[in-house]
Amino acid sequence: MGSILQKMEEKPRYSLPEMFYPLTLHQDEENIQGKELTMHKDLPPLPAMKLPSAVDSADTNTPDNWVKRDERLVRLTGKHPFNCEAKLDTLFNAGFLTPTSLFYVRNHGAVPKVDRDKAAGWTLKIHGLVENESDLTISDLARLFPVVTLPVTLVCAGNRRKEQNVVRKGLGFNWGAAGVSTALFTGVYLADILDFVRPFRGKAKHVIFEGSDVLPNGPYGTSQKLNKAQNKENGMLIAWAMNGAPLEPDHGFPLRLVVPGQIGGRSVKWLNRIEISDQESQHY
Asked: Is-contact 208 281, C-beta < 8 A?
């Protein structure tokens, strides 16, 4: 594991594209060449990219009436909020890396609409029990810390719940077996950010992550134990790109947390705040 991470830590030779914006939101089919990221030579090749070209009619009368989605995705909770998976044979045929358009989606409400101006000024606030409270843009993150790309598999905690519900009914909706996907995520190690802000020893115990989605009981949030978050071997990332391109709206544009080895619900999307605390997350 150590040797793999050591190779990944070499900073890829790329800079953020001038217009760092989801490919599906570029208007009038403008040329998107050059807006992808140049990937590290040791990484697997990017999956074939098929961009959704239009908003699905099912989203027309929902708050997500601006988000373009692949028509092959299977909706699991009606029209809104959007929760989906690909058909299993489609997922298999896509190969080891899942195309972004086929990556499963778990949303709790409307997708935050981040326009170009908001994206350009997006700031991650890091505060709490730290010596160096910081407000960092994505450009700051790329400038201050080594940029890495890791292949990460995420899986929804409800994956295959449909089968489980046949035996014994549980909470949640009927996921099939395709609530699992693998992508190349690009960003910086959470551990490096924590080293930069310097949590107070003996007081700081937890790292709390909060997204910008607007939900009835407040924004979505989770937490990690500080000692786990500080361990780079755990591979936790603050990511802005997926499969060589900016994150798409359903996957957390412009910034998200990626937590390998835990349920997908721990990887907070639309991330705008990190708090170092003596308590774990109190989010709903």
From this structure: yes
